[in-house]
Specification:
This protein is α+β, with helices and mostly antiparallel strands and 146 residues long. The protein folds into two domains: 32 residues; 108 residues, no CATH class. It contains three helices and five strands. A five-stranded antiparallel sheet has the order 3-2-1-5-4. The longest helix has 30 residues.
């Protein structure tokens, strides 16, 4: 009889230890926090239209885009290009979606002696914990294709 009670107690201790170990592992998994990391985006704005004071922008997250297409053009949920009053307006739009301005520069493209068309480039950054957060709240023409 003592042997049966001893075996029962040993089995009970083994089961309790196994459940305790599972709880400890589950708690460690919950405690492991994903560390945020910084990602970047480039906003590019080209010369405004001849009869317009609005500007359209392209976003580069490092995604694939065809050389000749407008895959990176920022669009609304209907796929229509979003126009901004200025690059600052576009930066404010991005800021509302968690992006921070890092750097600005202009590239002047000269064609056969003209005064050159400026391209405005603004580098922005954002802290994320999951890659799906990069484009959160944003859409480009290329995203509408898939």
């Amino acid at each position: 009889m003592k042997r049966i009670i001893s075996l029962f107690a040993l089995a009970l201790l083994t089961a309790t230890a196994a459940f305790a170990q599972e709880d400890i592992l589950a708690e460690k998994t919950v405690q492991q926090e994903v560390k945020p990391y910084k990602v970047y985006c480039e906003i590019v704005s080209y010369v405004r239209g001849l009869f317009s004071n609005k500007t359209n922008v392209e976003l580069d997250f490092g995604q694939y885009a065809s050389w000749w297409s407008a895959d990176r053009q920022l669009v609304d949920e209907n796929g229509d290009a979003i126009s901004f009053n200025s690059m600052l307006d576009a930066a404010n739009y991005m800021g509302r979606r968690g992006w921070n301005l890092e750097e600005c520069y202009i590239i002047q493209n000269f064609n056969k002696g003209d005064s050159g068309d400026p391209q405005y480039h603004w580098i922005m950054s954002k802290e994320i914990t999951d890659p799906s957060q990069i484009t959160e709240g944003l859409r480009t023409k290329g995203m509408n294709k898939y």
